[in-house]
Amino acid sequence: MTTISWVVVADGNRARIFETNGLKLDLREIEGFTDPQARTRDPSLRNGEPGQNAMPAQNSPDDTARDQFARMLVDYLDKGRLQQRFTRLRLAIEPRFLGLVRRHMTEETRKLVFDEISGDISKMAPKDIQRHLEQHG
Q: Where is this region: Disordered (predicted)?
Protein backbone atom coordinates (compact mmCIF):
# COMPACT_ATOMS: atom_id res chain seq x y z
CA MET A 1 0.00 0.00 0.00
CA THR A 2 1.32 3.43 -0.95
CA THR A 3 1.76 5.92 1.85
CA ILE A 4 -0.33 9.03 1.25
CA SER A 5 0.73 12.15 3.10
CA TRP A 6 -1.19 15.37 3.47
CA VAL A 7 0.76 18.58 3.94
CA VAL A 8 -1.18 21.39 5.61
CA VAL A 9 0.16 24.89 4.98
CA ALA A 10 -1.75 27.58 6.85
CA ASP A 11 -1.94 30.89 8.65
CA GLY A 12 -4.93 32.26 10.53
CA ASN A 13 -6.70 33.36 7.34
CA ARG A 14 -5.86 30.73 4.75
CA ALA A 15 -5.16 26.99 4.65
CA ARG A 16 -3.97 24.86 1.75
CA ILE A 17 -3.81 21.07 1.73
CA PHE A 18 -1.40 19.22 -0.51
CA GLU A 19 -1.15 15.51 -1.13
CA THR A 20 1.92 13.46 -1.94
CA ASN A 21 2.25 9.73 -2.58
CA GLY A 22 4.98 7.60 -1.09
CA LEU A 23 7.94 9.26 0.53
CA LYS A 24 8.60 11.63 -2.38
CA LEU A 25 7.76 15.25 -1.87
CA ASP A 26 5.82 15.86 -5.07
CA LEU A 27 3.05 18.17 -3.87
CA ARG A 28 -0.37 18.32 -5.50
CA GLU A 29 -2.80 20.88 -4.05
CA ILE A 30 -6.12 19.18 -3.29
CA GLU A 31 -7.95 21.75 -1.16
CA GLY A 32 -7.83 25.37 -0.15
CA PHE A 33 -9.74 27.29 2.48
CA THR A 34 -10.00 30.93 3.43
CA ASP A 35 -11.55 32.20 6.60
CA PRO A 36 -14.72 34.04 5.54
CA GLN A 37 -14.37 36.25 8.63
CA ALA A 38 -10.71 37.13 8.03
CA ARG A 39 -9.88 40.77 8.48
CA THR A 40 -7.90 42.66 5.89
CA ARG A 41 -6.47 45.24 8.22
CA ASP A 42 -2.75 45.77 8.75
CA PRO A 43 -1.13 42.68 10.35
CA SER A 44 1.06 44.86 12.57
CA LEU A 45 -2.08 46.25 14.17
CA ARG A 46 -3.45 42.77 14.69
CA ASN A 47 -0.23 41.67 16.43
CA GLY A 48 0.30 44.82 18.50
CA GLU A 49 3.82 45.43 17.14
CA PRO A 50 6.03 47.85 19.09
CA GLY A 51 5.25 51.46 18.29
CA GLN A 52 1.61 50.69 17.62
CA ASN A 53 -1.29 51.55 19.90
CA ALA A 54 -2.94 48.20 19.27
CA MET A 55 -3.22 45.75 22.10
CA PRO A 56 -5.22 42.63 21.22
CA ALA A 57 -8.28 42.10 23.36
CA GLN A 58 -8.50 38.88 25.34
CA ASN A 59 -11.32 37.53 23.15
CA SER A 60 -11.34 39.89 20.19
CA PRO A 61 -13.53 39.10 17.17
CA ASP A 62 -10.33 38.33 15.24
CA ASP A 63 -9.26 35.73 17.83
CA THR A 64 -12.71 34.16 17.76
CA ALA A 65 -12.65 33.98 13.95
CA ARG A 66 -9.19 32.36 13.98
CA ASP A 67 -10.38 29.81 16.54
CA GLN A 68 -13.43 28.95 14.41
CA PHE A 69 -11.22 28.66 11.33
CA ALA A 70 -8.88 26.28 13.22
CA ARG A 71 -11.87 24.14 14.22
CA MET A 72 -13.08 24.01 10.61
CA LEU A 73 -9.63 22.96 9.38
CA VAL A 74 -9.28 20.27 12.05
CA ASP A 75 -12.78 18.96 11.24
CA TYR A 76 -11.70 18.58 7.60
CA LEU A 77 -8.55 16.72 8.67
CA ASP A 78 -10.57 14.43 10.94
CA LYS A 79 -12.96 13.60 8.09
CA GLY A 80 -10.00 12.88 5.81
CA ARG A 81 -8.53 10.56 8.43
CA LEU A 82 -11.85 8.75 8.93
CA GLN A 83 -12.18 8.30 5.15
CA GLN A 84 -8.56 7.00 5.10
CA ARG A 85 -7.54 9.65 2.56
CA PHE A 86 -4.09 9.96 4.19
CA THR A 87 -1.83 7.96 6.47
CA ARG A 88 0.63 10.71 7.42
CA LEU A 89 0.23 14.40 8.15
CA ARG A 90 2.79 17.20 7.92
CA LEU A 91 2.00 20.64 9.30
CA ALA A 92 3.63 23.90 8.16
CA ILE A 93 1.58 26.47 10.04
CA GLU A 94 2.12 30.00 11.33
CA PRO A 95 3.06 29.68 15.05
CA ARG A 96 0.03 31.31 16.67
CA PHE A 97 -2.40 29.43 14.42
CA LEU A 98 -0.50 26.17 14.96
CA GLY A 99 -1.33 26.44 18.66
CA LEU A 100 -5.04 26.69 17.86
CA VAL A 101 -4.88 23.75 15.46
CA ARG A 102 -3.10 21.62 18.08
CA ARG A 103 -5.70 22.55 20.69
CA HIS A 104 -8.59 21.31 18.52
CA MET A 105 -6.91 18.27 16.93
CA THR A 106 -8.16 14.88 18.06
CA GLU A 107 -5.69 12.39 19.51
CA GLU A 108 -6.29 10.00 16.59
CA THR A 109 -5.39 12.66 14.01
CA ARG A 110 -2.47 13.93 16.12
CA LYS A 111 -0.93 10.44 15.99
CA LEU A 112 -0.61 10.78 12.19
CA VAL A 113 1.46 13.99 12.41
CA PHE A 114 5.05 13.13 11.50
CA ASP A 115 6.44 16.66 11.19
CA GLU A 116 5.62 20.21 12.24
CA ILE A 117 7.19 23.35 10.83
CA SER A 118 6.27 26.50 12.66
CA GLY A 119 6.24 29.18 9.99
CA ASP A 120 4.01 31.00 7.55
CA ILE A 121 4.59 29.71 4.03
CA SER A 122 0.92 29.70 3.01
CA LYS A 123 1.27 32.44 0.41
CA MET A 124 4.16 30.76 -1.43
CA ALA A 125 3.78 29.08 -4.81
CA PRO A 126 3.56 25.26 -4.62
CA LYS A 127 7.12 24.80 -5.99
CA ASP A 128 8.47 27.21 -3.36
CA ILE A 129 6.56 25.38 -0.62
CA GLN A 130 8.03 22.10 -1.83
CA ARG A 131 11.54 23.57 -1.83
CA HIS A 132 11.02 24.98 1.68
CA LEU A 133 9.82 21.62 2.99
CA GLU A 134 12.73 19.79 1.39
CA GLN A 135 15.15 22.13 3.18
CA HIS A 136 13.42 21.65 6.54
CA GLY A 137 12.65 17.96 6.27
A: 33-65
| Reported confidence tier of residue 119, pLDDT bands at 50, 70, 90 | confident
Per cent of the chain over pLDDT 70 is 82
- Total domains in the chain come to 1
Contact partners, residue 132, CB within 8 Å, separation at least 6: 92, 117, 121, 124
For 2, 44, 51, the CA distances from 93, given in Å and listed in that order, are 26, 19, 27
Residue span of the structural domain in which 55 resides = 4-135
Contact 9, 122 (CB under 8 A): yes
Q: pTM for this structure?
A: 0.82
Which pLDDT does position 136 carry in this prediction? 81
CATH number at residue 77: 3.30.420.60
